[in-house]
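Onboarding guide, step 5: your first structure request.
Type a short instruction followed by the sequence, for example:

Predict the 3D structure of this protein.
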Amino acid sequence: MVDTPPVSDPASDEDKLTRLVRRAAAAGPPMPCAVVHPVDATSLSGALDAAAAALIAPILVGPAARIRAAADDAGLDLAGIAIEDVPHSHAAAERAVALVHAGRTDALLKGSLHTDELMAAVVSREAGLRTERRISHCFILDVPRYHKPLVVTDAAINIEPDLETKADIARNAIDLCRALGIVRPKLAVLAAVEVVTPKQPATLDAAALSKMADRGQIEGGIVDGPLAFDNAISAEAAQTKHLESPVAGDPDILLVPDLTAGNMLAKQLQYLAGAESAGVVVGARVPIALTSRAEGPRARLASCAVMRLAVGMRLTRHGND
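The system replies with structure tokens like these:
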């Protein structure tokens, strides 16, 4: 089990994402990471920044001539960087997944291709990276007014998850938080209200997830819901409503009712509350960073840090198999 960083952490004046990067860099040697179709300056520089921070040992998968041309145009040095030459983005996604099966890479980093292209190769039933879990996405947010990193899930993969899918989303997020150093993550299952009512199916799912956690069907965390956003985040709001909850005011994870709610919540925190974010796909055989061109260098670096920590916990539990 990974311990929570001590209160006397010498980097306590750093922001939350910087602490994640520092923690990941100290977790061991850089992990092999396939960078899928990095044919532009943004994706190439992001991979090289992560390599310079000792987070990844990149394997660039894509058309070699285009990769080198993009590096030349941006003044980036590819000396010593492995390149897997394939003709186009679809082939890059397939080769990256094949590298996982061959044991040559522990993570995937999206480059300049559509998310659908990469995920089609990942979820392929014949040659993909499926596990017994449903795949889901976690935003890891540094919200300036919140006292610790906050995970929002799922805001990118599962559109309208049913109860069993939500259970896997919860399991994936709890496992990720434990990899980030949180011994027993607190998960709030969000709805519009904090009471159970059949008029709002999200409240029924939330209540079921809470009971599933009570009975060991969801392990490793503390799960409570339904909780409205205000009384999930604010202990004062929960007290005002006479709500007793082991999670209210201190969640590590917000599990949202559906992708629309999660995507809006994450982006509102980014654009209105000044949150910075990392983002990874979990539940597959390896973690996957789905960075976009709209994200800055810090988000890419933090996403690689989160993947590095997730890989470290997986290898600790299961061995490098």
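Each response can be followed by summary notes, for example: The CA atoms of residues 120 and 126 lie 11 Å apart.
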